[in-house]
Predict the structure.
Amino acid sequence: MPVSGGKVQAEKPESPEAEIYNKIHRAIAERRLLPGSRLVEDQLAEVFGVSRMRIRWVLQSLARDKVVTLHRNRGATVAKPTVKEAKEVFAARRLIEGALAREVVRATDDKALKRLKAHIKKEIASEKSHDRAMELRTSHDFHTLLAEIVGNSVLVDFLQELMARSALITAIFERPDISVCSHFTHSKLIELIENRDEQGLVDAMLGHLNEIESYLSLYEKDEQPVDIKTIFADL
Amino acid sequence: MPVSGGKVQAEKPESPEAEIYNKIHRAIAERRLLPGSRLVEDQLAEVFGVSRMRIRWVLQSLARDKVVTLHRNRGATVAKPTVKEAKEVFAARRLIEGALAREVVRATDDKALKRLKAHIKKEIASEKSHDRAMELRTSHDFHTLLAEIVGNSVLVDFLQELMARSALITAIFERPDISVCSHFTHSKLIELIENRDEQGLVDAMLGHLNEIESYLSLYEKDEQPVDIKTIFADL
DNA sequence: TTCGAGCATATTGTACACAATATGAGTCTC
DNA sequence: GAGACTCATATTGTGTACAATATGCTCGAA
């Protein structure tokens, strides 16, 4: 029973597993399921009206994408990234999205530009609607859209994974006092693309990512997954 | 039963699944199992002396790492990348490894340099031994080693996936007349790292990747996974 | 001989029952 | 009352039996 969509959010439910996968994945990405929440197999099986085996399969897939964590004999929880992990994800994003920016300028044609502009409209609409879930999703989709424009499905997959993890990270480390209004920044990026300003776009993208990261409070909060054994290894 | 090692080739067998995963993964990466080979669950179960369920989990894990393809109701085969996929993997590698090169120069200290030089020794040894499998592995490990030096586990994971896929791609599209002797090129890269020549390293890395790709015959060979439906869609 | 239908076989897909495990509550002792 | 021990319960882990499916073969008819 392959979760046929893989990590990609397929529009049409190719297999029942893929559908469940998407539902849970979205619930997590849109923060209806918060980091640390337990995901009990029986409960999910009942909710989705399928057998436990199916759920286990889906949980396995989600774990692969690092949005849930499996604890041997103790079940699954929504992943709770550490500060270290958060920093690594952002570093990876800067590296990949920075390099991607150059390619985007090269790859963008009229059709692509249309898609980009259409996307901004969606972002504005979701910000107006005050639907936080959709707001987050469209904002994240902008970043994967760039990979799509470059036309490299390997990179699309990577970006998709990074964005899902970013969603979790934001959920944990977001400072309540700041709200990121991204459509404006994204519009500026599109402008640079339209002007074929390669270096400008790269810089702006890196700036954008740094800004997002700076809006987080990336220091250890509560009893994060600290590994006791490691801490007392030298005693 | 999480395949605890994930896609990382763990040294110590944390769980029986992880061990099986590693064995199959290595068999594929080292080309003892060639693209297209069928992987029948019962057979594998018998070989490894475990139940079929265990094998299914492992196959699922391998599928998500794109080294195995699952066909609904028809079982698993070793993945057989298409030309398109091959080109995308190499494009992704250029993008990521190119950008990584800059970071490597920054991140390399004495300890890292030692690791790099030790690795070269390994490469030379395996080339001498004429053990094609080990030769391939050490050569590929060099590239993930760079990510390790930068110290970003997210990138290490990406690189590992890309290298596994590259192994498959090479297996399919390699031209029999050319043998890549990589340790020499890799040594030159290390030299550039030692000299802190950022731009030089980036260029050399891109050159290296282009060279590898150019040694492949990236045109459609036999009856690659062509989708009949798509081809005759307009009839 | 060619085509198709139906059957045989090999293989994968799924559910279920039970085993293993972790955790917390309750109990007993000192 | 503090600590350790046992047991109850909730939950996950695993093997097995059986159902579903795909594929190739056989056989019969045109």
In short: The two ends of chain B are 48 Å apart (CA to CA). The interface with chain A takes residues 1-2, 4, 6, 15, 57, 60-61, 63-64, 70, 72, 85, 88-89, 91-92, 95-96, 98-100, 103, 152-155, 158, 162 of chain B (CB under 8 Å).
